[in-house]
Design brief:
Number of helices: 1
Number of domains: 1
Radius of gyration: 18 Å
Number of strands: 10
Oligomer: single chain
Protein name: Lipoprotein
Shape: elongated
Strand content: over 45%
Largest sheet: 5 strands, mixed
Structural class: mainly beta
Distance between the termini: 44 Å
Length: about 140
């Protein structure tokens, strides 16, 4: 009985750890990912190099190109005479030349029908850059 209780406690504590984000490093720029409900935005690459943690970007100051995957649903009303929503998986990139150390940014993704968009904002909600769609798949 004790072993079973210990296993339940261990598993529940390990699952909760994966939800916590690390503390931002003061010498790096931190980029939060934000999207609309029922959609998913994942950090994929910085300057062509794969990331391990896909929940955020934490990068050196300066110029960088960020790549993300955006999973979203297109409602049947945007498609035509279908009953089921259509799922899309899109790759988007965004380049910005002036990431500052200790600064926190917000990368926001959304969609217009079948077309995804991505934008970078500073902590004061000033638009800094717009990204580009690099290809989408139906899933």
């Amino acid at each position: 009985m004790r072993i079973a209780l210990w296993c339940v406690c261990l598993c529940s504590s390990l699952g909760g750890c994966s939800l916590w984000l690390p503390s931002p490093h003061p010498d790096r720029a931190w980029i939060d990912l934000q999207t609309q409900a029922n959609n998913r935005l994942l950090a994929v690459e910085v300057d062509g190099e794969q990331l391990r943690d896909r929940r955020y970007f934490q990068i050196e100051p300066g110029a960088h190109e960020l790549a993300v995957r955006y999973h979203f649903e297109v409602k049947p009303t945007n498609i035509g005479a279908v009953e089921q929503p259509h799922r899309r998986d899109c790759r988007l990139t965004l380049a910005y030349n002036d990431f500052a150390p200790g600064q926190r940014y917000r990368l926001q993704a959304g969609k217009h029908g079948f077309r995804p968009w991505i934008r970078l904002y500073d902590p004061y909600d000033q638009l800094l850059a717009r990204g580009l769609e690099r290809g989408c798949l139906s899933i």
